[in-house]
Amino acid sequence: MNREGRCSQEWAGSRLVSLWQEHGDPSLRDRVADAWIGAQAYRMHAFAGLDLPARDASLTKLFWSELDVALHETALDVLGPRAETDAAWTDGYKWRKHFGVPFVQFEPLFGHQYSHCWIDFRHRPDNYLMAKGISYFENSRRATLAQRAYCIANPGGFSGYSSNVWGITACDGPGFGPYAGYNARGAPPAQNDDGTLAPTALGGSMPFASEVCLPALRYLYDQYRTNIWFAYGYRDAFNLTASWWDSDAIGIDEGPIVIMVENYRTQKVWQRFMQVLEVQRGLQSAGFTNLPFVMTSIQKNPGTGALTVSWPSSINRSYQVEYSPDLFLWMNSPTGYITASQSISSWVDNGPPATDAMPALQPQRFYRVYQFGAP
Prior knowledge:
Elements: H1 3-23, H2 26-40, H3 67-77, E1 95-98, E2 101-104, H4 127-132, H5 136-153, E3 170-171, E4 183-184, E5 196-197, H6 199-203, H7 206-228, E6 229-230, E7 233-234, E8 238-239, E9 244-245, H8 251-265, H9 268-274, H10 277-285, E10 293-294, E11 297-300, E12 307-312, E13 318-324, E14 331-339, E15 344-349, E16 366-371
Antiparallel strand pairs: 1-2, 3-4, 5-8, 6-7, 8-9, 10-16, 11-12, 12-15, 13-14, 13-16
Helix pairs in contact: 1-2, 1-3, 3-10, 7-8
């Protein structure tokens, strides 16, 4: 089954869960459990082409690795009474370092995005990433920033690649000469990279790294509006080296832009989906753990208006700082991932890029810090 078919099934199941939460219809719960889970439950175990004992011989082998779908189905599958969980799906993970930062490698950015459209992974690592000291949210942020660094380095010498022109993922392509048509492109490392870029790669990473994704989306709109923008938003892809602009929009690529921008703005999709008790149970059953928060103290710098947040820490333990304007919408600070080197750690809010504005310019601002690992 191709990416569109597999991911459309995944999204259909997620939409059923959202409707179930919105309308409180018990029949939707049965439809998720029977029509979705009963047919698809075992596919989560077949990560990275692993041969595992299957209930259905037709589902024995998965022929392409999929970090994203494995993540998403882990939560959805355990909604069903026949579902199973198995840590084997993490066996295919590739923990690699690119541009000085380690993360679970999956070259096309969609693999770091789709499950996050629905599931809020910010405070919920599994055992695998708990041992690495990060969450899947942080992993996706690292993958996003590494791809941007790859495009700035531009080892393939493609036209346009820069700090504001990047975004490599599965998408349409020129389909002539040396350029492939639709293909699973990605980086780093380079996978089918032929100079073709897709705006969905930027929009789908908005919650992870808005400080680089939003300027890039604005740049594409300002510089290439007549070629890249039409009735449905951004066209699916473009290639400046080939002087090619796609004529199509693809729903599976437009959708993540809309949903992830909404999660960046209001987090409403996350909030609704994560209220479903069965989703919470699914994550717990699959080994995801809610991370603990630590006590903090705040000190104001009278000279600059900056605020310093401090907390007791354990050496080599990792922490993440979040900030909020209202105690409802919480945002990860781009500079707030900190590995402690002493018993007291601190972080300074002096406006961008740490937060979206100087704290002195805001009516109010709240902070909290969570730690990776057991209390």
